[in-house]
Amino acid sequence: MRKWYEVIQGPKLQVPNLLWRGVAPPKAQFLSWLAWRGRVKTISLLQRFRALSSNVENLCLCPFCKLETESVDHILLQCSEIWKVWSSMLQWWGVSWSIPATVDGVLLWWLGTKFKKSVVRIWRLVPIAMLWSVWRLRNECVFKGNQSNMDELGEIVKVRVGLWAKSGLPKFHYSVHDVVANLNQGMLLADLFESGMIKGSMPYAVCSQDVVNGVLSCFRSIDSSDCWIKIVYKFYGEL
After folding, report:
1. Which of 56, 88, 163, 233 is the most exposed place for a label (fewest CB within 10 A)?
2. What is the dihedral of CA 6, 7, 8, 10, to 10 degrees?
């Protein structure tokens, strides 16, 4: 029965696993689940349920762009200001995309993007951190009158990903700063460990000179010998 349901539903069946089986805080997971189901209490949803008058035009607009009606997909994804932050998250990972039109589409796309097992758990924290951070900023703008700062929002999302990974993932050997500022280097090391090209455990590992030549462009200095070297990985991406 389950296999038949998987065939009918396809990747949609995996979205709850993305949202609920990670290490993000329960509140962020729940908000992301509501967004996926289209149940976040935006202005358009409240008006649909007749919990808010449709005559208050100023309240209906997105607090970020102030151009479109605030719907779930608009406030969390389609708004031109928020879209820029999503794009910066993809640049952070070195990934390009054609932005989906819905939150459901984003989560399905996220599931379909392949990374090494060692980093995919961090990758899957990003959309949850993004949805949670955008909604919190939205509430601060609406209820406290704060001004939105999209550059700051992007950094907050990265820090949240780093904090959640650091506190929740077993054998996570990087600092929050490593995740925020040196993500590509950390992913490279994780790939080398997983492939077996580097042997040992963080922060000490042994690898061949050929591997050293491949990572020299990413790291500043290295203590090498003729055939084998010891890499001493420190915080902040230094060796």
Report:
1. 56
2. 70
Same structural domain for residues 91 and 153? yes
The predicted pLDDT at position 60 comes to: 81
- Per-residue confidence (pLDDT) for residue 184, from 0 to 100: 66
d(CA 219, CA 4) in angstroms, rounded, equals 49
State which of 120, 151, 172 marks the end of a domain.
172
Task: Say yes or no: 29 and 115 in one domain.
Answer: yes
pLDDT tens digits, residue range 82-138?
999 999 999 998 888 888 889 999 999 999 888 877 788 899 999 999 999 999 999
Burial of 17 (0-12, 13-18, 19+ CB in 10 A): exposed
Regions of the chain where pLDDT drops below 70: 1-13, 51-58, 184-239
Per-position DSSP letters for 101-168, written without gaps between them = SSHHHHHHHHHHS---HHHHHHHTTHHHHHHHHHHHHHHHHHHH-PPP-HHHHHHHHHHHHHHHHHHH
**Is residue 178 a part of any domain in this protein?**
no
* Statement to judge: residues 218 and 168 lie in one domain: no
pTM: 0.75
**DSSP H or E stretch at residue 231:** strand 228-232
Q: How many domains does the chain have?
A: 2
